[in-house]
Amino acid sequence: MKNTLLSSAITLVVGFLCNKFLPAGSATWAVPAVSALAGILLKQTPKDGALSGLAGGGVLGAILSATGDGGLGSILGGVLGENSGLLGSLLGGGILGGAGGGIGGFLQGMINKGTAAS
Fold it and tell me: How many CB atoms sit inside 10 A of residue 109's CB?
């Protein structure tokens, strides 16, 4: 559980900093990348990585939407409608973070399997 909270915090903070200091839309690629990297570094399972990415990305999406930047929700604009706002950003960030965290956990499992076989 401790790693899940730490990974969520890493995804949230780094995603926020990328959104603030890098060009517009940077959080869209940063959230899954950071979530995956955190999952690998913290040796999470795919389930834990996906949950932590979901939480970190979702909270980041909600924060960005509340501050007027709904970029993380733009991927869901066609499904939820153009004015999806907070819900779209929350879901968009959660989906991106969850996918990245799940991939990171999967890659960590493959690394563990490779080292156990050696």
Answer: 17
Question: Tokens in use for 82?
Answer: 């153009």
Which two three-digit tokens encode residue 38?
């955190």
| Structure tokens belonging to residue 26 | 């940077």
Q: What is the largest CA-CA distance in the chain?
A: 53
Q: Percent of the chain scored above 90 by pLDDT?
A: 0
* CB of 49 closer than 8 Å to CB of 115: no
- The number of beta carbons lying within 10 Å of the beta carbon of residue 37 is 18
The per-residue pLDDT for range 54-104, each reduced to its tens digit, is: 888 888 888 877 777 656 655 555 555 555 666 777 777 778 788 888 888
